[in-house]
């Protein structure tokens, strides 16, 4: 089975392909000739994922899946949330985003947060939604050099290493994206 993954984020493509069985081949947006930035202007993570999946299906005619992920920090009323990638500006720089987050949490004792991934699958004219959540906390500083995004500042409940200190396989087994992808795989195997 071939499925388009509606993302230009090469890190996400690598991470998801590692989690999927070999019988499912991921096709990139680049491979179908989609060079444009797909709009992500919705108010929620779920709506953004739906918007991206529908864009590819409607404009290019492919079965596909799209994801959107956000980091939701309790004391910041769920921010950065849907704005996680561009929290510190449109340049979408992970270091800038983490620096802004750590600055906003200075002197805060409540550092609880969660990563939330929503995957939307458009397959055979039907839409299916899968959600994965990883609860944890924000560290006091960046630790580790694996992964991407906010991985160096997030420790999942029950762990003592940041996502950036874990291998791709270790992270995939416990992360928000891993949980949503497990649901996607279980559905596709049916």
TrEMBL record:
Any Gene Ontology CC annotation: cytosol
Keywords: Hydrolase, Magnesium, Metal-binding, Nucleotide metabolism, Nucleotide-binding
Assigned EC number: 3.6.1.66
A single MF term (Gene Ontology): metal ion binding
Pfam families: Ham1p_like
Cofactor notes: Binds 1 Mg(2+) ion per subunit.
Catalytic residues (UniProt): 68 (proton acceptor)
Residues engaged in binding substrate: 7-12, 69, 148-151, 171, 176-177
CDD domains registered for this protein in UniProt: HAM1
Alphabetized HAMAP family for the sequence: Non_canon_purine_NTPase
Quaternary structure, from the entry: Homodimer.
Protein name as annotated: dITP/XTP pyrophosphatase
Taxonomic lineage: Bacteria, Pseudomonadati, Bacteroidota, Flavobacteriia, Flavobacteriales
